[in-house]
Structure formats: C-alpha cells, structure tokens
Amino acid sequence: MTSLRTLVAARRWMPGTACQVCTAWQRDTLCRACRLRFRPTGHRCRCCAASLTGLDAVCGVCTLRPPAFDRALAALDYAYPWDGLVTRFKFGGACELAVPLAQRMAEALRLAAAQPDFVWPEVLLPVPLSDQRQRERGYNQAWELARRVGPALGVPAQARWVERVIDTPHQIGLPRAERLHNLSGAFAVTSAGRAGLAGRSVAILDDVMTTGATLQELAATLRRAGVWRVQAWVLARTVRDDAGP
Ligand SMILES: [Zn+2]
Ligand SMILES: [Zn+2]
C-alpha cells in the first residue's frame, strides 16, 4: 500500500504547479478547467472592445466620437478571476503571471485574426512607463506581455520606439476627460521610433483598458509621427462606464 509519505514525496517531485485560480495541482499556471470556465464570450465593439449586447459592429460612443486607434481587441473581461490576477501581476510583483496572461492574449488574437477584416500589424509597441514608475515596479507589465505575445504571433515588439516623458498620477477613479488632460503630451516617439514608424501599421499593447485615455493619447502621438494604422491590443477590458472609451 502506498504510504502517505510516498504520496507527499511524489507530489513534491511531480512536475507541475498549483492553478492560480482554483489551486488544483496540474501542469499549467492556469488549469484547463478554469481557462474554459472563465473564457470570454460575447461580442465587442470593434473600435473600443467594450462588450455589446446587440449585434452592432461599433458602439454608440465610438460612432459619435471615434478613437484615435482604428480598432481595439481585448482578450478578457476585467472581472473575476482575471482582475485579481492582473492586480497581482501589475501591483503585487508577480511578474511570472506574464506567461499565462500572454498566452490568453495570443489565443484571443489568433481567433481575431480569423476574421476577414483583420490586418496583422507590422510592429507591436507596449505602452511605456516613465523611468521612475518602472524603477519602482521593477518591470513594465505591458512589455512583459508584448515580449511574449509578439514572438507567439510573429509580430516584432519594440520597447524603445516610444517613451513616456511625463509621469502621471494614478488615474484610477478619474473621469475620462480628466485622464486625457493629465495625459496630454505624456508620450513621445524616440529617434529610433521616428525612423521605424512612419507609414507603418502598428498595435499598441497594454494590460487593462478602462476609459481608453492612455491608448487614445499614445495613438494620437503615433498618428502625429506618421503612423498609418493603429490597433489597440489589451489583455483585459473593463465593463464600460458612461465615460466611454
Ligand atoms: Zn484552475
Ligand atoms: Zn466602442
């Protein structure tokens, strides 16, 4: 009969890990059951990736006020269990969660690419952090995603083509207009970026899209630098409030 000690020893040496959601011991950081149970369903606005209940391609807000990016794609809803994982990834130092979260993004983007109007970008640009914020956090969560999503999809990721020249206070809880005001002039295209971006089709990548103000400001900066098409790729999209994208 197998002793308890043998079972404990076997478990210790069995390759695997605890699922970050249900804690089941298995092969992946997020188990298959949780991936299926919490997979995104439903239809999103092609401009801002907000969940839509109807069949319209574009939401009312984007029809009235189109964003500076051409389309947005979100892998997940910013809701349980993904909100907790993203918070740990972004604010709790759990940089290793970039691996399973980037896999969710790559999966969702492969599905999106099957749509007839999808155009692959030529380059992937993570939303940059200011030097100070990056020093505090130790890493840029958008780059940690982009450097995995890019190779998985065959799109080169460039960390140094845009930079954040003005740090902004945390924007959590601020309305869109105030966020946009705070972000005005926050981004700049670097000299390497100026050479590489004119006339190109790009995707900017961020972890969470709330009002979309950050992506809006970065996309507008890229447009001024001559970028032809801008997509916004985000890991998670919040359920939209009245402020819109
Ligand atoms: Zn699980
Ligand atoms: Zn929209």
What would you call the structural class? alpha/beta
Strand order of the largest sheet: 5-10-9-6
Helical fraction: 25-40%
Main beta sheet strand tally, sense and closure: 4 strands, parallel
What brief labels describe this structure?
four-stranded parallel beta sheet; alpha/beta; two-stranded antiparallel sheet; 18% strand; binds zinc ion; 2 domains; Rossmann fold; 10 helices; 245 residues
Structural features, described:
It is a single chain. The protein has 245 residues and is an alpha/beta fold. It has 2 domains: 1-37, no CATH class; 43-237, Rossmann fold (3-Layer(aba) Sandwich). Helix content is 38%, strand content 18%. It has 10 helices and 10 strands. The protein has helices at 4-13, 32-37, 60-64, 82-91, 98-113, 131-137, 141-153, 176-183, 191-197, 213-224; strands at residues 17-18, 25-26, 43-44, 51-52, 71-77, 123-126, 162-164, 187-189, 201-209, 229-237. The strands form 4 sheets. It has a 4-stranded parallel β-sheet, sandwiched between helices. A two-stranded antiparallel ribbon has the order 1-2. Helix 5 crosses helix 7 (141-153) and helix 8 (176-183) packs across helix 10 (213-224). The N and C termini lie far apart (61 Å). The structure holds zinc ion (2 copies). One zinc ion binds at residues 45, 47-48, 50, 58-59, 61-62, 245.
